[in-house]
Amino acid sequence: MPPPNQPPSPSASPADPGTLRSYAVLLRRMTGEFNRLIHAFAHDQGLHPTDVQALISILDEGPDNGGEPMTPGRLRARLNLTSGAMTACLDRLERAGHIRRTRDAQDRRVVHLHYAPEGKRVAREFFQPLATVTATAMTPFSDAERRAIGGFLSSLNEELVGIRDQRP
């Protein structure tokens, strides 16, 4: 058992691998580690963890990944924030150089959010160790196993969005 106030070893496995309980334990541990990284990045950048979630949404759902440019309204709905909290978040991100806001060429009322090049550079530098360990962790798996793992994670993410969307 780990000492108090220390997370369990990430390599520790639940007793019955392959069970729903074992997956739940492993996913909680992984989520905890991701959250600690997000909080560290937020702290280093003088941001709130919610600001980092906004950056992730702008990056993951934007043109770099085949989506439409993010708008403040879509981001507000995605993060379940009030309009005032969304404005404060975007102001912090823009002041810190992580995003830029542009007006749509056809409809000037529409604002698009873009991850700024300097913001991408800073995030890439901070999260490079995560990319490295992810690549290392994937090494022993075949292409078919990687596709299965990717399918599982994709399906789980879709189900989680469904749960989130059902909440009042």
From TrEMBL:
Coiled coil: none annotated. Residues 20-158 form the HTH marR-type domain. InterPro entries: HTH_MarR-typ (IPR000835), MarR/SlyA-like (IPR039422), WH-like_DNA-bd_sf (IPR036388), WH_DNA-bd_sf (IPR036390). PROSITE patterns: HTH_MARR_2. It comes from the Bacteria. Pfam families: MarR. One of its GO terms (molecular function) is DNA-binding transcription factor activity. Gene3D superfamilies: Winged helix-like DNA-binding domain superfamily/Winged helix DNA-binding domain. GO terms for biological process: response to stress. PANTHER family: TRANSCRIPTIONAL REGULATOR, MARR FAMILY, TRANSCRIPTIONAL REGULATORY PROTEIN. This is MarR-family transcriptional regulator. It comes from Streptomyces xiamenensis.
